[in-house]
């Protein structure tokens, strides 16, 4: 729930217990801006604040599905400079993400990992109920591949953010968000599924 600002204080608490964590971040945007709307704490800035505070193990951060317009000619430079792996949406088009998730599992190892899923990582054809939709995003099947691909990781927390039901008269965005959260619960450590 909420906008992506909520991940920042959650990661402060998680890092207090576990130290810097790996991050599987699904989003249309990197959310690493220095300022947004003149503010340092905004839904477009949480992961820069997390880097500055040492909350992330930057060599174990993967951002999947990023795309859209930018004010910068190289919008992923900051992320890559920190050591993040950035997987733009166009690298995901028309294919299974199971091979990517095998690589991600190796990268994350057995150290603590947090999953942060912005619903705008999905194409607005599936999830229009969000404040910052971007065309040409991931499919629901790819979202399931990402989440299910996290099974076996040392997941210490997760979130799903930016669902705005009032922007979707069909209710599909809320339905998709609820199902993705259920899937996240199913991949938590020690959860038994059939």
TrEMBL record:
Keywords: Hydrolase, Metal-binding. Belongs to the arginase family. Agmatinase subfamily. The keyword Cell membrane does not apply. GO terms for biological process: putrescine biosynthetic process from arginine, via agmatine. It comes from the Eukaryota. GO terms for molecular function: agmatinase activity; metal ion binding. This is SPEB protein.
């Amino acid at each position: 729930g909420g906008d992506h600002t909520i991940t920042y204080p959650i990661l402060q608490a998680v890092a207090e217990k576990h130290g810097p964590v790996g991050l599987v971040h699904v989003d249309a945007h990197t959310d690493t801006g220095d300022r947004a709307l003149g503010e340092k704490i905004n839904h477009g800035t949480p992961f820069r604040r997390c880097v500055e505070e040492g909350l992330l193990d930057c060599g174990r951060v993967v951002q999947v599905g990023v795309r859209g317009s930018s004010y910068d000619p190289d919008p992923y430079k900051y992320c890559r400079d920190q050591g993040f792996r950035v997987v733009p949406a166009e690298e995901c088009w028309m294919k299974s993400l199971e091979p990517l998730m095998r690589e991600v599992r190796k990268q994350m190892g057995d150290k603590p990992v947090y999953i942060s899923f912005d619903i705008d990582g999905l194409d607005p054809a599936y999830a229009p109920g969000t404040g910052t939709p971007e065309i040409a995003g991931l499919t629901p099947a790819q979202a399931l591949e990402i989440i299910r691909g996290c099974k076996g990781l040392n997941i210490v927390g997760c979130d799903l953010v930016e669902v705005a039901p009032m922007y979707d008269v069909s209710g599909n965005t809320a339905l998709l968000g609820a199902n993705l959260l259920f899937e996240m619960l199913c991949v938590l450590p020690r959860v038994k599924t059939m």
